[in-house]
Write a structure and sequence with these properties.
Sortase_D_2, 216 residues, alpha+beta, 8-stranded mixed beta barrel, Sortase, Chain: A
């Protein structure tokens, strides 16, 4: 009789627990499916970002490999946030160590890079968390554009000023890479990074000189 009582109790518990177990299993499956969807979305977003960065870097590389004579002969642009060729710079960039101060235009185009630095709009806004890239010709005239970028050293300061903000970065990495090396444009998930891009070597360039700095 006692065994029958225990059996009935266990059966009652099973009847009560079965729906709860089924619901728990359904919740787990739901979470698994949601995780798969989020992972697939993240992979698509990452792939799209890589495509955009690669396309932007390819365009910049072609522009940087063009003759720098136009950049050498063009009149010097104002380093202040004033109109440059009918366009208003989004910022100025200053590297005291090499005595450079340039206007920064939005978009790495042939016109913008004629005698100014250009923010690659495929990357994050200047001053934002992530990796913001600025490209400029390494003009052959000493001191023009990024001509002296190869003289920058680890620890040097780079100041980017917009109309309302002033960002100070410290150089932490200098490298020479292949023109298609898109990894230099990727964020590390925690820092505010500024990446400067120009040609290397100065004459008949085959690679890209990359200077990277973190916001202090």
């Amino acid at each position: 009789m006692r065994k029958l009582s225990y059996l009935l109790i266990l059966l009652g518990i099973a009847v009560i627990a079965a729906p709860m177990l089924m619901e728990w299993q359904a919740d787990r499956e739901q979470q698994r499916l949601l995780a798969e969807v989020e992972q697939a979305r993240a992979q698509r977003d990452a792939a799209e970002m890589n495509r955009e960065l690669a396309a932007g870097l390819e365009r910049v590389s072609h522009l940087l490999e063009e003759e720098s004579s136009a950049a050498d002969s063009a009149p010097a642009a104002s380093s202040q946030l004033m109109t440059v060729d009918g366009k208003t710079p989004v910022a100025t960039i200053e590297i005291a160590a090499i005595d450079v101060k340039l206007p920064v235009l939005a978009g790495a185009t042939k016109a913008n890079m004629k005698h100014a630095a250009a923010h690659m709009t495929e990357t994050v806004p200047l001053g934002a968390e992530g990796n913001a890239a600025i490209a400029a010709h390494r003009a052959r005239t000493k001191g023009r554009l990024f001509n002296r970028l190869n003289e920058v050293e680890i620890g040097d300061k780079i100041v980017v000023s917009t109309e309302s903000e002033r960002y100070t970065y410290e150089v932490y990495k200098i490298s020479v890479v292949e023109p298609t090396e898109v990894s230099v444009l990727k964020p590390n998930g925690k820092d505010k990074i500024l990446t400067l891009i120009t040609c290397d070597p100065l004459i008949n360039p085959t690679h890209r000189l990359i200077v990277q700095a973190k916001m202090e």
